[in-house]
């Protein structure tokens, strides 16, 4: 650094602690001359304003003006410079809704802005920093920093300890000893170079020194200088000027480690004397001008050092004489130990005591009190005679110190300690003189719409109340479930300090208090209303901003945010507020409901409604249900209250009912169209290995379930008309699907072979003559195409699909009924809200359970159709497997020509393949039914071979045993060692076949006799009988047994009686 003329700067006369480092670095970088006065000015300027960091975004700034007087910032972004984009058709509509929403910020209740600092737009941490208020003590005129006050306060504490005899120092013992003996001095002697403290206060004083950040060197210096302070007491009284004079007279230049420390120390002492004797004292004293002159000499540290000792003594004597004259002035209040400086310097003394009280806070653990806090406070009482502190003043200042530290750290224990301290303060009942003395501690205050002065105690209580009141008026911003305990403690503090304090805006509130309310309930009522209004304004601004990013209407987002606020209110704040004001929860919910209702009313009154009307109504109804549910959970049926007049139901159903019906109609058309499209392309292949049903049905039910979910999740008020429309749409889609499945079926009769012409057995003249085979009937092309899509695997998939329809329909019905219960619950809540408004008016009657059950009978039609189609397919699937897929292998080959050459065991593997295929595809619940139908078809085919097998089949009595073995083999296949069908079911189904085989064992004459008896009541015209309706003793069965029996007697009877041709014919 260089000065004018290029010479190096002499820094010995410069207070380096008061030099701007930035200015010095700028001088070094630019080569400019260093100006000590400019460096000092820059230093103090920098201390007045916060330190700003370089911000690349340019968004960090500091306002020199007061922003709270300028109103809120602009709500809209300035328009871009440049050509405007082309207007779109719906842009004006969207702009209209957006503008109407932004106007809501200024509607009644929502336009409320916290007048102090507009906290709704301020972060909690920043608001706390701004809210850290002062006591309003008169300002200091001398240049005294916080460090100066802290060091002076410590000196006052030391002086009080000496004067009270709680602390003393041993004199230094200096003896001349040879240099070679210096190293042999004992530790005790070596320690005599520093003062000795040998009493109770030693540890506490050392702790206070560390807490107040006083260096050991300055501590030693002050102790040495103040050890005889008692001799300087004026008329037996000690004050701060006496302490400063004692220090100035006892400390020399060489007692300081550095010159800079000496200069700072001397200036501080001079400023203290200037503040107490010149600025704070009465100007009537004739020596004031002389005092100004001598104080200027004292502040000139260079002249003070070089002046002769007599000159310094003279200056100090003049100052001491001036202080003595002031101290001799009459006492104002006649209190014991009262001094002049108690009243004239109360602003300075109070600041010193605040610095002393700060030593109880642990400097290493922010927000914590040291373990010796009580002992430290007891030590502080020794300073009361010097600083003019009474017990009440102590309690007020200590409460203020605790609260300030809480405001900085947020430590709840400090807040609770503040509460306890204020409770102690409230118990004080001082005598009149003491009260008048405290009233002389005048502080300026601003709050609750008025400016004025209060005494220090009332000012501390007011400032604490203002700080807490400001946060509680926006408690949704500052508090949450996590710090709810702080909220409760702060509320206690506000109620404790709220005597004779009223809100200047009480008359302008959205919802006023009821007549006869207590001051406590009125205060909480105001806090709740103001906080809800502030939170609502925040939600308005947030919803408006999010709507532009998420392309949703602001009302939808606002309802969602308000629901979160309601949940937070009821879970975190209302339980606490209810202890002091039982109506707090009702007030909060009513304000939420009213504010949103005002915004919704503005929207609904618009000339046109946006495309998102359905979503807006749903969000609004959901929010209203939330309010109703919370009210009911808090207050139950006890709904009567003066606040009910403010609960105006939104009447969403007036707007939503036609919208729901319109939507349902459109959804039904979409589902029906999709059902027709998906069923037409269905190939009846399994959806997957695990889900063996049609893909189309899964898709249909997926769309149906989506429709149901959207219906019930719309959050709109629903009634029985809407439910009926929903059920009709579901039924229509499923009936269309089932009708298509039914039309794909083919009659079972088309698969049965045509019965051959009856013939009688006769030995062939030509043993090599070829017997006539049974030809299957030729099907129509349309029927043949249908049969190609009615294979056993596809039929299994259809059966699974039909079962899935029935199961899923049951699930859907149960789900709809359960959802309808929730709907009825919502209807009940809305009726509850209406009853509160109409003072017990009867609500609309909800439909009974019987009427709801009648609606669901429409599903029974679908179930019956599904059952009928299932029975049709079950009757068809066995016939398809046996009479169509196995007709060549089983029907037309079994026992042909001879029994021995075409036994059943040849065809068992084919039947097993069919059963394996069925069991792999069919669902468990239908497996036994399908297998039973296959067995019934096998029995029907077996009987067909025995009775309608044609000319190629003739049986001897010896063949019967073989055929019975084949029948047993077939039965065992389906019983599957107990894993298949029950044996009693198998025996029942095989009974007819067994009886027919028993007929073949009988002689021909016996069978003829049975036939003749059966024919007595029948005509000679033979009508065909179905295989499933046969009876072992009917004419048709007996006649066909004779036709297929290798017996000449039977052949002769048939020739004579029925004129049947020989089986060996063409």
Automatic annotation (TrEMBL):
It comes from the Eukaryota. Residues 623-749 form the MHD1 domain. InterPro entries: Munc13_1, Munc13_dom-2, PATROL1_C, unc-13_homologue. Residues 60-99 are annotated as: Disordered. It holds the Pfam family TPR_PATROL1. Residues 901-1011 form the MHD2 domain. PROSITE patterns: MHD1, MHD2. It comes from Aegilops tauschii subsp. strangulata (Goatgrass). This is MHD1 domain-containing protein.
